[in-house]
Structure prediction request, 71 residues.
Amino acid sequence: FAPAKIVAVADVLDALTSSRDYKKMWSFEDAYQYICERAGTYYDKATVTSMRREKKKLYDQYIQYHPADKI
Prediction:
């Protein structure tokens, strides 16, 4: 995997699940689904497949930094 492909997916997940002055934050699940639906078009399919395999670990890491956002 090219590091840039991994960073692209991580950056979108972070951006969607973060609050900004101009938008509300998305839930982890909504952001996750958004990325998964675009695998192979906007995001590298192999990178998203790896993300899918590690969903629980990814969510556990997410909760460490967003404890009030548990789904």
Remarks:
- The mean pLDDT is 91.
- The CA atoms of residues 30 and 66 lie 15 Å apart.
- The radius of gyration is 12 Å.
